[in-house]
Design goal:
205 residues, alpha/beta, 7-stranded mixed β-sheet, 7 helices, globular, disordered N terminus
Length: 205
Amino acid sequence: MRPTSPVADVADVSGETSLLREFLRSPLLTATVAPSSRWLAAQMVVPIPERGEPMVVELGPGTGAFTQVIQDRLGGRGRHLAVELNPRLAGLLDRRFPEVEVVHADAADLPRLMAERGLSADVVVSGLPWVAFRPVRGVRLLPLVAGSLSADGVFTQFAYRWTRWAPPAREHLRDLRTTFEEVLLSRTVWRNLPPALVYLARRPR
């Protein structure tokens, strides 16, 4: 089983309460105690096209810190699929965002979920922690995500600034560069607790 979003926001009191409750119930399933800031969320959704009908997938949405900003960016266009492992958080999301297709599933199920819908993603926004991308029974998550993207698709993943040089982060960056043609790193988002940055990976190989 993979953890959900490791995110932190001071503005969403109900989100903080829900995540803290779920963390106390199952710290392996919910890897944080608070949602991400709106400033980090704004960086995460930059690749979503301003025109057309984009297909956006959100992995590990937690209580919806990124979900709301994705919906604002879409403005009623396209399609938004949110994949959440924690059943209680999935239920909360479903009630908060009736316009979003919320699925209670593991992120590793993404290829199946997309195949069932006959879709490929234009953008995948990930709120999953580094540990979620480690191999499980020999299967790596990142290639599964890349395989669910369109040829010009974009994957965004955030990391806390202080973990950037840790071995799991360096390994994940190598995997990103192996899996995608272009990998960019944002400036530090200081108005997040703790400060974070965003990896933006384009064009899956």
